[in-house]
Specification:
The complex is a heterodimer of chains A (300) and B (315). Chain A has 300 residues and is mainly alpha-helical. Chain A is 74% helix and 4% strand. Chain A has a single domain (1-134, 149-286), classed as ABC transporter involved in vitamin B12 uptake, BtuC, CATH 1.10.3470. Chain A contains eleven helices and four strands, in the order ααααβββααααβααα. Chain A has a two-stranded antiparallel ribbon with strand order 1-4. Chain A has a two-stranded antiparallel ribbon with strand order 2-3. In chain A, strand 2 (137-140) and strand 3 form a beta hairpin. In chain A, helix 1 packs parallel to helix 5 (147-169) and helix 2 packs across helix 9. The termini of chain A are far apart. By secondary structure, chain B is an all-alpha fold. Helices cover 69% and strands 3% of the residues of chain B. The chains are: A mainly alpha (300), B mainly alpha (315). At the A-B interface, helix 4, helix 9 and helix 11 of A face helix 5, helix 10 and helix 12 of B. Chain A: This is LivH2. Chain A: One of its GO terms (cellular component) is plasma membrane. Chain A: The chain crosses the membrane at residues 12-30, 65-86, 98-121, 141-167, 196-219, 231-256, 263-286. Chain A: InterPro entries: ABC_transp_permease (IPR001851), BCAA_transport_permease (IPR052157). Chain A: It comes from Desulforapulum autotrophicum (strain ATCC 43914 / DSM 3382 / VKM B-1955 / HRM2) (Desulfobacterium autotrophicum).
């Protein structure tokens, strides 16, 4: 039974990271009907920027909690700005173009960011220092829970609750929901559609940046091309939950994390991808709109 | 009957140039030429599914890989001479294309794209985990037999190159006929408007699967050539990144023959010529993809089909 609860804890941790990254996918898809393939690479970039911020400015601070807060703030800001640039350069000129043009542009942006990371930071794996956060581990009835896992779970949960509140209860949230339904009608109602899209990119990439830093803090090893992997997993999470659906992305991320942890625990981690993507295809075949997605009427 | 217009003349000049190339090239350039031929064939076969069929297939390296692995396994585990494994390496990927696409073919654009990515990743993991002990794991299969046919030794780089030219001409031929055939027209109309195509009695599902099967079979044939050229197969040649490249080449090229050949040249041949350029190629190509799409959203050489008015072509 211990292995069950241990993998559940590990799965929830990695699931929260997937969920944070998946939110960026799902929000962009909800507004623009575009798979933002560059999102995962921004997540990877966040890990590298975070590591550099730590090395350059905070390496000698003793107050590690303050240091971590500064890393998150600085990295989040930089990555959110990168998200704005990405939207302006790669997506805005293509808003009226055929769908596939935007997909190719997104793939191009992904290649640029991924290889930009490689050219700046080098192709080798880099490591986060182990002592950024206190290395405490609790043993609760044979299940090990580390401090970093608690941090990831709690902060992710707070962010998600805050985001749902923001989308559901505020005026800006209502504007976002309206824009996702119909750009032109929203514009007629006086909503600044370009502003909303920029805001979506800021929120999405900021959450992705938090996810990227969690990846660095939790796994420590980071790689220039890891963005594809996390991006794909987050995208799978978004589809499982019903793409465009914000609570769906969170549930999808958590379920995917737990599923992946159980495969790693009970089968083998070398088979995790095969099982995950088989599950994805099975879900797509049975219910293409995801477990929490609404039925989308075919537009003729 | 072929009409003599500038396009036909262009093809003839291209084919003659490809045929004469070995007379001018040393062995290094010959290998580069073979690479160009093989990847062009794969790019064109992706065009059958993505460009002509309009199905977002982002797992095309999968069929390329199945072909290469079929030939390698047939040769290594069952002792079939590599050239005799060609029919198998066409039929098996084609069947895989039809069987895999069958359950997912009804999915709308982006979902189909993700499902095909999924297939590619599952395939790669099966191969890397050395399933049934015949795929050689992460190292792949090496030391394949050199090709020979009816006692003729075809192991020289020139022979392999001409094999590639033959396959490319065959692919040209298939694609030119597809454009004029009933199936090609059906694919064209179902890409424009699937619902309308269905309602006038076009078997959309059947033609979509046909396109998948045909594209996969041709990609499989190219896979055999790759296995012959390196007398080895290894998983990383068929990963998801390769699928992304084929996908992008078709769309950036505009789903047209010159566009795809140019894209293949830029992505697979230039890096071999300029070794120092190799680390920068994806960075530069990424920007090129973005700007190509902004400046020409329908591709660099948009495909022209028959005499259909422009306003019908909006995807």
């Amino acid at each position: 039974m211990d292995i069950f609860f241990q993998q559940l804890v590990n799965g929830l941790t990695i699931g929260s990271i997937f969920a944070l990254v998946a939110l960026g996918y799902t929000m962009v898809y909800g507004i623009m009907k575009l798979i933002n393939f560059a999102h995962g690479d921004l997540v990877a970039m966040a890990s590298f920027v975070g590591l550099t911020v730590y090395d350059q400015f905070l390496g000698k601070t003793t107050n590690s909690i303050l240091a971590v807060i500064i890393i998150f703030a600085v990295t989040g800001t930089i990555i959110a700005m990168a998200g704005i640039v990405l939207e302006r350069v790669a997506y805005r000129p293509l808003r009226k173009a055929p769908r596939l043009s935007a997909v190719v542009s997104a793939l191009g942006a992904s290649l640029v960011i991924q290889n930009g990371i490689m050219l700046i930071w080098g192709p080798r794996m880099r490591f986060f220092p182990a002592d950024i956060l206190p290395a405490i581990t609790w043993n609760i009835g044979g299940v090990y829970i580390s401090f970093i896992q608690v941090v990831i779970l709690v902060i992710s949960l707070l962010i998600m609750v805050g985001l749902i509140f923001f989308i559901d209860k505020t005026r800006v949230g209502a504007a976002i929901r309206a824009t996702s339904i119909d750009h032109d009608a929203s514009r007629l109602m006086g909503i600044d559609v370009n502003g909303i899209i920029t805001l979506i990119f800021v929120i999405g990439t900021f959450l992705g940046a938090v996810g990227g830093l969690f990846i660095g803090l939790y796994y420590r090893g980071i790689n220039f091309n890891m963005g594809w992997n996390y991006g794909l997993y987050a995208f799978v999470a978004a589809i499982i939950g019903g793409i465009g659906n914000i609570p769906g992305a969170m549930v999808g991320g958590m379920l995917l994390g737990i599923f992946k942890a159980f495969i790693a625990g009970y089968v083998s981690s070398t088979w995790a991808d095969a099982f995950t993507f088989t599950l994805l295809i099975a879900i797509l075949v049975v219910k293409p709109t995801g477990i929490m997605g609404e039925r989308v009427a075919e537009k003729v | 009957m072929m009409k003599f217009n500038s396009k036909t003349i262009g093809y003839v000049i291209f084919i003659i140039a490809m045929l004469l190339f070995p007379a001018l090239a040393d062995s290094k350039w010959l290998a580069i030429g073979s690479t160009f031929l093989i990847f062009s064939v794969v790019g064109l076969s992706e065009d059958i599914i993505l460009g002509k069929g309009g199905m977002f297939n982002m797992g095309h390296a999968l069929f390329f890989g199945i072909g290469a692995y079929t030939a390698a396994i047939a040769n290594k585990s069952f002792g079939i001479p590599i050239l005799y494994s060609i029919p198998l390496a066409i039929i098996i990927p084609a069947l895989c294309g039809i069987v895999l696409a069958g359950p997912i073919i009804h999915l709308r654009g982006d979902y189909l794209l993700v499902a095909t990515i999924g297939f590619n990743i599952v395939f790669l993991q099966l191969v890397e985990n050395n399933i049934f002990g015949i795929t050689g794991g992460p190292n792949g299969i090496f030391g394949l037999d050199t090709p020979s046919f009816l006692g003729m030794d075809l192991a020289s780089p020139t022979a392999i190159y001409y094999l590639g030219v033959g396959v490319l001409i065959l692919t040209f031929f298939i694609m030119a006929n597809l454009d004029r055939s009933k199936a090609g027209r059906a694919l064209h109309y179902l890409r424009l408007d699937e619902l309308a195509a269905n309602s006038i009695g076009i078997n959309t599902r059947g033609y979509k699967l046909f396109a998948f099967g045909l594209g996969a079979g041709i990609a499989g044939l190219a896979g055999v050539l790759l296995a012959i050229q390196y007398s080895a197969v290894s998983p990383e040649a068929f990963n998801f990144m390769q699928s992304v490249l084929f996908f992008s080449i078709v769309l950036v090229g505009g789903s047209s023959l010159p566009g795809i050949l140019m894209g293949t040249f830029v992505m697979f041949v230039l890096p071999e010529i300029f070794r120092d350029f190799a680390t920068w190629r994806y960075f530069i190509f990424g920007f090129a993809m973005i700007f190509a799409m902004i400046l020409r959203p329908e591709g660099i050489f948009p495909a022209r089909f028959g005499k259909i008015p422009e306003y019908f072509k909006r995807g």
